[in-house]
């Protein structure tokens, strides 16, 4: 309970800080007043149309990524399973890019999250087929590298073929992720999918707890493993797909957050689910504040910060896995 | 072909072209110091050369010259063979003069010079006052000084007529892909000024080109936001031009795509850009 309160307060505090930080330096009190009472000034427009959707998206996307990481790690019983590392985010980005470059998303705005979701489903399916519930870390990582490399190459190809001279520069956005100048259009596109995905993933708690005892024990406890797997695939794909469709692929959130919180929740997968959702929201909000503090007027990508924090941890996890195997 | 350029703008130039062309032909009988095989490898020198060269003097223009979204003289350029601006290709055309921009790849320029070809480089125009300078330079390079002088005179008279100072100068912002904006020390900024607007980018401390974050733009609260051209296909870099915040300001009009091919190069065709901007200002005044 203490952990929950702490995390909620942290997310709330970061949310407010995210709202009062921006290129234009305006006193915090004044900007929050403009947010709450729309006085028709340009400041109110900045607060309501630029900073508020940005903060909401940071929290939503962070929660989606943290939760998906915790769920995948619980199901595969492997701390290296993370949507970014195993190629789910990359596949979602490919889906989004294809729907944008074919013009499908112009005909029908929901095509953007749907295409990202469809590709994410494919990637999760591939991972489960290649690595399987009892697969080793090596097969999981190798499958992830293969999927990431393939989707990354296809994304670059699609963007390089675009008649738009700026599309090729978008490769960085799709690989690293950014929340710069997003609007409520993007919130409304992503939020319903993230909500459905989160509902599916939160429903996995009991199943994941049972799975810590092994598959046979879980079946004996009345857990339908097929159902668990289906909800995991659809839930992860919806949450990660929608998040990636509007913000690009933001890696390492689902790796770092469950790792930091696992001990605090007593290593129980069901408790780790909600803790990682809150922790992920806090982490992406913090990273999005940091990119604006480091380079206020340039669009520093979120993935840069995430990789700086996440890559050393990833190496540490690999070393530990190696030691355990030796 | 001329899009928004009025035919009356062109008449004096075309007349000058025909007249001096005939005179030049007579002069070529003796030993002629004028370059005879001119190749242009830059969009802006393409257009200046198309205006000033004698028939047959210009033998190739760059590929961009035929692209109607970038070149104001695309139709005229279609009569010429194009080149891809590479040293090898250009050398094989056996030019006696190559026209390039100061931002043309230095490797290409030095390669051509080492091969013994004269290369004349033109700096991009940063103001309307640069237009006569570039015309003069091109006139000299092509040996068409008289034609250039006529064109400069026409340009200066027309510009003076167009840029009569208005009583009230509305505040405008030029907003391009990737949150890019330009200040007063640029050709686009100068077109805006001549059309009777104050540029809000100057208030944000932007003198040349640079990033103007969406937040800053909104807080500057300009009377009108003039957007850069929309390219085919989609790119995230362009999404900032469709951000709902731009339309949420009550006193601001979003003018959409006004900047086009006439804004790119410092040729007399920028006058049609000035005229469009002046028309925009007049329509704003009429709406008030």
Sum this structure up briefly.
The complex is a heterodimer of chains A (326) and B (288). Chain A is mainly α and 326 residues long.
Which key terms come to mind for this protein?
heterodimer; A: 326 residues; mainly alpha; ABC transporter involved in vitamin B12 uptake, BtuC; 15 helices; B: 288 residues; alpha/beta; Rossmann fold; 5-stranded parallel beta sheet; 4-stranded parallel beta sheet; 13 helices; 11 strands; disordered N terminus; ABC_transptr_periplasmic_BD (chain B)
Order of helices and strands of chain A: HHHHHHHHHHHHHHH
CATH architecture of chain A: Orthogonal Bundle
Give the proportion of residues in helices of chain A.
over 70%
- The average pLDDT of chain A is 90
**Count of structural domains of chain A:** 1
Sheet with the most strands, sense and barrel status of chain B: 5 strands, parallel
User: What portion of the residues of chain B fall into strands of 2 or more residues?
Assistant: 5-15%
Q: So what's the overall shape of chain B?
A: globular
Transmembrane segments (chain A): 52-72, 84-104, 110-131, 138-159, 184-204, 232-261, 273-295, 302-319
GO molecular function, one term (chain A): transmembrane transporter activity
GO cellular component, one term (chain A): plasma membrane
Main location (chain A): membrane
Explain how this protein is built.
- Chain A: It is a multi-pass membrane protein.
- Chain A: Belongs to the binding-protein-dependent transport system permease family. FecCD subfamily.
- Chain A: Pfam families: FecCD.
- Chain A: GO terms for molecular function: transmembrane transporter activity.
- Chain A: It is found in: Cell membrane.
- The complex is a heterodimer of chains A (about 325) and B (about 290).
- Chain A has about 325 residues and is mainly alpha-helical.
- Chain A has one domain: ABC transporter involved in vitamin B12 uptake, BtuC.
- Chain A contains 15 helices and no strands.
- Chain A has helices at about 1-20, 30-35, 40-75, 90-100, 105, 110-130, 135-160, 170-175, 185-200, 205-210, 215-220, 225-245, 255-260, 270-295, 300-325.
- In chain A, helix 4 runs antiparallel to helix 6 and helix 9 (about 185-200) packs antiparallel against helix 12.
- Chain A starts with a helix and ends with a helix.
- Chain B has about 290 residues and is of the alpha/beta class.
- Chain B has 2 domains: about 20-160, Rossmann fold; about 170-285, Rossmann fold (3-Layer(aba) Sandwich), CATH 3.40.50.
- Helices cover about 45% and strands about 15% of the residues of chain B.
- A 5-stranded parallel sheet of chain B has the order 3-2-1-4-5, with helices on both faces.
- In chain B, strand 2, helix 3 and strand 3 (about 80-85) form a beta-alpha-beta unit.
- The model of chain B is unreliable at about 1-10 and about 15-30 (pLDDT under 50).
- At the A-B interface, helix 3 of A face helix 10, helix 11 and helix 12 of B.
């Amino acid at each position: 309970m203490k952990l929950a309160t702490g995390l909620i307060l942290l997310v709330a505090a970061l949310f407010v800080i995210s709202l009062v930080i921006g290129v234009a330096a305006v006193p915090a009190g004044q900007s929050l007043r403009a947010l709450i009472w729309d006085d028709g000034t340009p400041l109110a427009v900045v607060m309501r149309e630029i900073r508020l959707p940005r903060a909401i998206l940071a929290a939503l996307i962070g929660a989606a990524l943290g939760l998906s990481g915790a769920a995948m790690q619980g199901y595969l019983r492997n701390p290296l399973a993370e949507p970014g590392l195993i190629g789910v985010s990359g596949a979602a980005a490919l889906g989004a890019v294809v729907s944008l470059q074919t013009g499908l998303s112009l005909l029908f705005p929901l095509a953007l999250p749907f295409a990202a979701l469809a590709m994410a489903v494919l990637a999760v399916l591939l991972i489960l087929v290649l690595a399987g519930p009892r697969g080793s870390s090596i097969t999981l990582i190798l499958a992830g590298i293969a999927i990431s490399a393939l989707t990354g190459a296809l994304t670059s190809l699609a963007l390089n073929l675009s008649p738009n001279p700026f599309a090729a520069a978008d490769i960085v956005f799709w690989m690293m992720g950014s929340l710069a100048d997003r609007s409520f259009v993007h919130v409304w596109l992503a939020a319903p999918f993230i909500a459905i995905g989160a509902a599916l993933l939160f429903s996995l708690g009991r199943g994941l707890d049972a799975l810590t005892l092994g598959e046979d024990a879980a079946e004996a406890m009345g857990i339908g493993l097929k159902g668990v797997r289906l909800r995991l695939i659809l839930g992860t794909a919806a949450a990660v797909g929608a998040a990636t469709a509007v913000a690009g692929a933001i890696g390492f959130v689902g790796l770092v957050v469950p790792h930091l919180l696992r001990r605090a929740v007593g290593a129980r997968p069901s408790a780790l689910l909600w803790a990682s959702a809150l922790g992920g929201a806090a982490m992406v909000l913090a990273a999005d504040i940091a990119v604006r503090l480091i380079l206020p007027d340039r669009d520093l990508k979120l993935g840069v910060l995430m990789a700086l924090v996440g890559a050393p941890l990833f190496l540490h996890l690999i070393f530990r896995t190696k030691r355990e195997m030796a | 072909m001329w899009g928004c350029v009025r035919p009356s703008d062109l008449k004096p130039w075309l007349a000058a072209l025909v007249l001096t062309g005939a005179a030049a032909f007579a002069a070529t009988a003796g030993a002629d110091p004028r370059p005879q095989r001119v190749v242009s490898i830059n969009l802006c020198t393409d257009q200046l050369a198309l205006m000033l060269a004698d028939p047959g003097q210009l033998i190739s223009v760059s590929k961009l010259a035929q692209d109607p979204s970038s070149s104001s003289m695309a139709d005229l350029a279609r009569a010429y063979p194009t080149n891809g601006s590479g040293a090898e290709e250009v050398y094989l055309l056996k030019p006696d003069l190559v026209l390039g921009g100061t931002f043309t790849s230095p490797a290409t320029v030095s390669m051509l010079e080492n091969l013994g070809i004269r290369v004349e480089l033109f700096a991009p125009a940063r103001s309307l006052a640069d237009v006569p300078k570039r015309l003069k330079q091109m006139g000299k390079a092509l040996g068409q000084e008289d034609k250039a002088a006529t064109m400069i005179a026409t340009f200066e008279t027309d510009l003076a007529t167009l840029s009569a100072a208005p009583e009230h100068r509305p505040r405008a912002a030029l907003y391009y892909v990737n949150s890019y904006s330009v200040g007063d020390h640029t050709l686009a900024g100068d077109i805006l000024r001549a059309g009777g607007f104050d540029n809000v980018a100057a208030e944000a401390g932007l003198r040349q080109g640079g990033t103007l974050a969406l937040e800053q733009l909104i807080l500057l609260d300009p009377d009108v936001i003039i957007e850069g051209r929309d390219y085919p296909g989609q790119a995230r870099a362009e999404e900032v031009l469709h951000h709902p915040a731009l339309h949420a300001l009550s006193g601001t009009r979003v003018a959409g795509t006004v900047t086009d091919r006439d804004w790119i190069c410092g040729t007399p065709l920028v006058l049609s850009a000035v005229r469009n901007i002046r028309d925009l200002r007049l329509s704003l005044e009429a709406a008030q």
